[in-house]
Amino acid sequence: MVDDGRGETPLLDGQVPADWWPWRDPEDPFVTRLPADKDILVTRRDTAGDPPRSPGLFNPQRYAGSVMPLGGFPTFLGAPMALNTEDLKAGNVDVALVGMTLEDNPVPGGRFAANSMRSLIDHMVFPAGGTDQYLGVDWSTLQLADYGNIASFANQNERSLEEIHRVISEIVAADTIPIGVGGTHLQSYSFLTALARKYGPGKVVVLHVDAHHDTYLMDMGRMVHNGSFLRVAIEKGILKGPDLIQVGLRGQGPKEKEIEWMRENGLRFHFQAEADTLGWDVVLRRVLEDIKGRMVYLSFDLDGVSPAYAPGVGTQDPDGMTASQALQLVRAVAIASDVVAADFIEYSPLLDDTHMTTGILIDRLIRSLLAGIAAKRQGIRDPLYIDPRRLRYDAP
To answer: What pLDDT, in 10s, does the model give residues 233-283?
Structure first.
């Protein structure tokens, strides 16, 4: 800021009066001010006038069948709804599916993913339940809840992260597993902070499925962004480098300095080249050995899968896992470890094909994760277990 020499309104560099930029603090041009109603998007609704209700889940469906195209109200997998920690506790909820609306990708669409998944035509007639095609396990034994969407501020991602932390913390406070649906990968920073507050910094392993390593060294003028959130989490001590396991890396990068940083901090990364050269089974077994018996946060960017199976993503890269490998990974991780959180992100329904191929894959990935969780609770311990009846027609 410079003085105009006449004792009048100070000028900012470029000869622009400070009053013309109301978001700048006239006393300190490096400080950005917020409007008086800065919290309007995350201010909780006043429920004083609502009819009284006891804590617990509530079902918004009018009809018993709740087939969504024919009169049902869209919720994740047709699950009942919860609004707070008390609802989750009273409903003994195992898993809460929560919609993510944060947009931090140059290619738009992530903010629409959650509501698109709720009304996914393919699953409308297949609500919560079903027998997994590999495990032979009916995961309807799990109690699910739809926890609504988390609000976000357009172009104020740091403030959005605080609200995401707040809502994910509500879920884990009930000892419920949060599964985020939609949004972009920056939001995972708040999953990490919420899990660190719950279990302690450095206690949770992150299995990061992605085409990109997201430990980029450039900050692009921001404290944390879509491509740096894992590096920032490690630098802040929220996550230990050796507890970050990455699968599906490819694309343009990392640069030499970035891969040096990854090695110096002990990251366990698996490039697609490793899977293509040594075989997927080798990579899968290495991953399972690293997470065995640990608390795991599965953060699944859909561009980790080949665009042949998941075209509706903002940062598409050729090659990658097949849909079958992705489903196997998710099932196996749930059995081998103690999954405490997950998200399935970077889905843009605006870019998906007419049949919503990417959306259907996300739906099946979620169901596979649920089946793995249910299988472990039912006593299955082999992460590569397959129901023998699925292998031969004459199996007992």
So the answer is: 999 999 999 999 999 999 887 889 999 999 999 999 999 999 999 999 999
Domain assignment present for residue 184? The answer is yes
68, HSE (Cβ side, Cα atoms, 13 Å): 20
The pLDDT value given to residue 4: 45
Residues 112-138: pLDDT tens digits? 999 999 988 755 555 566 789 999 999
d(CA 245, CA 247): 7
The angle, 0 to 180 degrees and rounded to 10, between the axes of the packed helices 357-377 and 323-336 is: 30
Query: Over 60: is that where the pLDDT of 12 sits?
Result: no
Do 285 and 243 lie in one domain? The reply is yes
At residue 182's C-alpha, the angle toward residues 38 and 349, to 5°, is 110
**pLDDT grade for 220, boundaries at 50, 70 and 90:** confident
How far from 111 is each of 30, 120, 157, 177, 185, CA to CA, in Å?
Answer: 30, 15, 13, 22, 12
Q: Is there a domain that residue 63 lies in?
A: no
Look at residue 82 and give its three-state secondary structure.
coil
Indicate whether 112 and 178 sit together in one domain: yes
Residues 12 and 109 in one domain: no
Q: What is the number of structural domains in the chain?
A: 2
In order of 135, 225, 366, the CA distances from 360 in angstroms are 19, 28, 10
- 215 with 321, same domain? yes
Q: 159 and 202 share a domain?
A: yes
Average pLDDT over residues 340-366: 95
Taking the whole predicted model, whether its pTM rises above 0.85 is answered as: yes
Q: Does any domain span residue 44? A: no
Domain carrying residue 181? 68-389
Beta-sheet pairing, 144-150 with 95-100: parallel
